[in-house]
Amino acid sequence: MTEKERKPRAKDVQRGVWNPETVAEVKYKAEMGKHRIRGCGSTKKYPTFDDLLILPSQLSRLSIDTYREDCKTQTVLGARYAKKPLVVETPILISGMSYGALSKEAKTAMARSTQIVGTSINNGEGGLLPGESENSYKQVVQITPSRMGFSLRNIEAADALELITGIGAKPGLAGHLMGNKITKEIAEFRQLPEGIDLHSHPRHGDIFGADDMVLKVEELRDVTDYEIPIFVKIAAGRVREDVKIAVKTGVDGIVIDGAEAGTGAAPVVASTHLGIPILPGLVQGVRALEEMGVKDEVSLIVSGGIKDGADVAKALALGADAVAIGTGAMIAMGCVVCLRCHEGNCAYGIGTQDPERRKRLDIDAAAKRVANYIQGMTYEAVILAKAAGKTALANMEREDLRSLTLEACAMTGVPLVGTNFTFTEPFGFF
Amino acid sequence: MVRLDIKGMSTRDVNRKLRELILQDDEIVVENPHSVHNFATALKGKGTVTVEGSTGFYTGGFLQGPTAIIKGNTGWYTGDNMDAGELIVEMNTGSNCGPSMAGGTILVRGHSGSRAGWGMKGGNLIICGNAGLWSGKMTLGGRIIILGTVGRGIGESMYRGIIHVLDPEVEDKLGGNVRVVPIDDKEKKEVETLFKKYGIEQAVDGFRSIVPKVYGRHEYFLFKPTHQQTGAQS
Question: Which domains does chain A possess?
Fold first, then answer.
């Protein structure tokens, strides 16, 4: 044996704790004396909907013809108290992403895509871009703690409101928009000094507690003449407790944002270590609504890492009424998930405010691609639902699911494949 | 003038009635408010609503033009998200007065709790008495005037806007990322005009102003060793 064979090179040794990423993080902190900010959210591997499988119909039930029979996809959200609930043609919504984090062109393209497929877009933090509301099929207006660019006029343009208490990518924190994206235009839109690093409020200045939120929701009902739905968005954490409190505030629907969710900028430590993934988050949310006897009354929307129609079908089977996508829509427009949204130099004209880079995004082409993506996802969900014997996506049920892994089984209460076995609380019809 | 007794009415009915009456009459007097919450939400028009008593939380939220005079106290979040008009509180307000207000004027003749003008974006917030901690936190615009003492953390991380104060010890109570500067002549005139309009007898010479420290990057301390000040984040 040669000396070289006896003594492997350092780079060939398998690394545990001190892997290259950890070493880089230590060096970053040693040099900068602070935490790292990064775009796109967590890169951690979480349990996913892929850990669940859908049971196809065979002799025990009949399947629906994939290409020749109907499967209803139209979805009604927020009908608990609102006179005009949010009606969309597919249960796939576009989640809140701000003008500022994203370019005007990206926001406009996504809004146009909603016209094509008949769904909603959410404006996110930082005001309602006219190009968005003029082009959207259904407009959700987010009420963020910072209230930047927020006014009664925004509410009047809304088909639904979303009162946000947290986001999955950095729960407990709020918006970070780095100075390189606070251009003159964005600064004016948000009333900020140009070039400043923005760290938004994590708490609403007019909601210091859940009891106050009851009154706030009443106020918003009054402002909207009790017409449009009011949702509350929470980051997945203590979901069971938070959902029950949210129900008591009188909202029409609850959005649960999992730890997989994306963002334009967040402390890496927050994205990586705060919050729980959407799979257990959704199950806890459904359980909470069922324990309160309001599952059919309060709409449940989930977001965070939703990537394909299988995720949609499984989320609906577990009890969601709809899902919301963010990163997926950006990828459809060209994003390569380079984790550098916070730098503002997006080469695809999506996560940038640089005029030259923005020109690279063809709005109509991008709109078509996002619409195609949502359509393709809906097709996939429909294929799975029909194979499971459903004539409506909303008819997907947890009995249609089995867990592929012990982890998913323990986390969701959905029986392990080939068994009726579950850990802890069962979440099937067993 | 029209009188409206709201005893026993739901908030929804109160606001519906106010919206109806303000189109018909310039002056509405409200009786028996019994600290009703969400009073005069998003009220539009140009009349005056005078409340003979106190109102609760979210008084005058999203106010769009009229003048509301509350002869008693108001609860938390007075004038939240207000766009235009006047909200005059003859006594005191609870905490978080004028959060995210974008325009108009809130005048508090008494004291106000903590976090007055939180995230304020425009308009005027005048507090004739004392204000609690964190007044003007993270304002994006507008003007806050405090005649009494201020609490700690005043102006924390203001992005824009100005706070005029008389408190001689304000330097000891400043929040991060703000500084104290002399009030200039233009500002004095603007404050004098407001005082004259609302009958506030106070000379403006003693005022100083709190403004954002930097128009660049804010500095935060996530770690404060007590033996020396290090650990600044920007």
Answer: 49-396 (3.20.20.70), 398-430 (no CATH)
Chain B, nearest residue to A182 by Cα: B216
Across chain B, which distance is largest between two alpha carbons, in Å?
A: 66
Q: Residue A349: what residue type?
A: G
pLDDT digits 0-9 by tens, A412-422: 999 999 988 88
Is B231 in Cβ contact with A33 (below 8 Å)?
yes
Helix (H) or strand (E) segment spanning residue B185: helix B185-198
The continuous run of DSSP H or E covering A139 comes out as: strand A138-143
The reported pLDDT for the residue numbered A390 is: 97
pLDDT < 70 positions in chain B: 214-216, 228-234
- What residues form DSSP beta bridges with B140? B160
Q: Quick check: B17 contacting A, CB < 8 Å?
A: no
pLDDT tens profile A234-271: 999 999 999 999 999 999 999 999 999 999 999 999 99
Handedness of CA A73, A78, A84, A86 (dihedral sign): negative
- Cβ within 8 Å of A, B 194-223: 212, 215-218, 220, 222
Is residue A188 less than 8 Å (CB to CB) from chain B? no
Rounded to the nearest angstrom, the minimum Cα separation between B12 and chain A is 7
**In the sheet that B178-182 helps form, which strands lie side by side, from edge to edge?**
B2-5, B27-31, B48-51, B64-70, B84-89, B105-108, B124-127, B140-146, B160-165, B208-212, B178-182
The reported pTM is 0.95
CB–CB of B220 and A193 under 8 A?
no
A interface mutation test: which of B17, B100, B120 has the most A CBs within 10 A? B100
Look up the domain containing B44 and give its range.
2-233
Tokens of B24: 């018909």
Q: How far is A273 from chain B (nearest CA, A)?
A: 18
- Which pLDDT does position A430 carry in this prediction? 59
Q: Residue B34 sits in a domain of what CATH number?
A: 2.160.20.60
Would you say A148 and A258 are in contact if contact means Cβ atoms under 8 Å apart?
Answer: no
Contacts of B217 in chain A (CB under 8 A): 179, 196-197
Residue B232's pLDDT is 56
Q: Does A205 touch chain B (CB under 8 A)?
A: yes
Interface test with B, best of A222, A227, A249 (most B CBs within 10 A): A222
Question: How many structural domains comprise chain B?
Answer: 1
